[in-house]
Amino acid sequence: MNSKHLTKGSRKPSPVRRGKLRLYSNRFCPYCQRVILVLDAKKIPYEVVNINLVNKPEWMFDKSPMGKVPALELDNREVLYESLIIADYLDEKYNTHRLHARDPLQKAKDQLLLKQFTKIINALLKTVSLGRIEHDEAQIISEGLATFEKELTDRPGPFFGGGKPGMLDYMIWPWCERSEVLKIFGKDYILKKEKYKKLMEWRKIMMEDEVVKRSCCSSYTHIKYLQSSRAGEPNYDLLIQS
To answer: What distance, in Å, lies between the first and last C-alpha atoms of the chain?
Structure first.
């Protein structure tokens, strides 16, 4: 998972071995982490090829439109891309440890919540890009988190999936893992524990989940990466060098 990120001029990997999956990924991409969480939760054998997103290998464009990651290559050389589509495929293809709710209505409601979370993601991305939070983005984040706080309050168990993490938990986790990086913009950006009590409790127990532990990075590491990215030289191989 922490292997060196391949760049332009890198040799094209050999074909995927039979019975294996290959994930073209990036260590600091939250969308890639979504797929890794699903693969690990379902104990599916896979290998990772990390891609430098600033200086992509030429052959990566044969694997995925615009060289996008995550991209999942199957052993028949078919390639899927887009994190939510890959996650849904894996959950349907591999029946062990189903992550989506079995009840069709609950599954649909969870997917609607994921659409709402996309608005939070976009607001966070704009905040990180600008280095400050605008009024509209602050409102989107606040109202969005309030919705998820209420959902956790109304649902049985400490997770969105109930007694254990489910698809919704893993799909929103990568951004919740990175939430503390906002503090580099000042104390006003730190999430208020008293306002999001359930979410903070959820974040704490998610950190203890064995699946999350496999791909989780510390806030310190995420901040170091963000600082390198904002300086125009994203250090994708940070974990190899440290």
So the answer is: 15
Residue 216 designated active-site: no
Which run of H or of E encompasses 81? Answer: strand 79-81
Both tokens assigned to 16: 């995927």
Give tens-digit pLDDT for 44-89.
Answer: 999 999 999 999 999 999 999 889 999 999 999 999 999 999 999 9
162 phi/psi in degrees, rounded to 5: 100, -115
Residue 19 is predicted with a pLDDT of 87
* Alpha-carbon distances, residue 211 vs 40, 41, 42, 109, 164 (angstroms): 6, 6, 9, 24, 11
Is the CB of residue 49 less than 8 Å from the CB of residue 13? yes
pTM, two decimal places: 0.94
Give me the catalytic one of 29, 32, 176, 217.
29
Give yes or no for a contact between 47 and 39, defined as CB atoms under 8 angstroms apart: no
